[in-house]
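[Meeting: bench + compute handoff]

Bench side (C.D.) handed over the final construct sequence. Compute side (W.E.) agreed to return the predicted structure before the next meeting so the bench team could plan truncations. Sequence as handed over:
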Amino acid sequence: MDLLDAIFLKPFADMIAAPDFLLQVLWEGLVAGVLYALIALGFVLIYKSSRIFNFAQGIMVVFAALTLIGFHEHGVPALLAVPLTLAVMFVLAVAIERVVLRPLVNQPDIILFMATIGITLFLIGFGEIIFGGENKVMITEQLHIPTGSYTFEPFGGFVSIEQKDLTAVIGAVVLVVVLLVFLNRSKMGRAIRALGDNHQAALSVGISLSTIWVLVWFIAGIIALATGIVWGARAGVSFALEVIAYKALPVLMLGGLESVSGAIIGGIAIGILEKLFEIYWGQPLLGGNTETWFAFVLALIVLLFRPQGLFGERIIERV
């Protein structure tokens, strides 16, 4: 009976008893979820346009952040280093399309997936040669990202919101809105959507596959830079940062590989739920550290009942 109380009653009683702490937990979960959603968007865009699962998205986050820091270390002002880093990510997108993807057109999906693993290993080695393997400190203040905090006293308690986290959430929302407007309103955005909806039909009406591939990999690079700045401001920048991309995998399983809205909603949902589970169930019952596996278990449960994810399209094969 005590175990049942600990699972079904005590967590909710704790939430009611300390609503200010619950708000703090929800906020931290929201921040993490927004960042998960950003990473997942990079996967979704590339998969929608090319049916390639981009294993390299994680190392692109690290590479973009290290490039930004590297420019600044060589005397480039921080605000100028940002567009220069975006230029590097564009060159990287062109190089990936010309050297890796173009020769592999019409190859099986597994070959293209293995190619992105090769890109990952290349960027790790190339990045270590250029930037070294030591940890770097993100140039947060130089980018004029506020580092203070706001404090509130709801319900007679205490809630603290880091200004850099608030900046990250606002920046992510703006980036997502701009991306959605681009995909739905611009000519190139509609071309990306058409390529994702019907590959052969899009090519037959003159949509350039190479142009779209460069574009979506560059957009993925922009998302990688934004993610790298935010995560770097919170935890520093090193090649270990690549592992955060793995947290996008359950987001993709939950939201669906082809759904932009699924990536956003799935990321936020996982961020909030894993934080709630860690605080109210994981620490009291399991000793904590449940954030490393909770999202994967949740995604697995969803896949058992809906293999295409909550927002993915059901695939029907007629025999």
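W.E. noted at the follow-up: The mean pLDDT is 86. C.D. will use this when planning the next construct.
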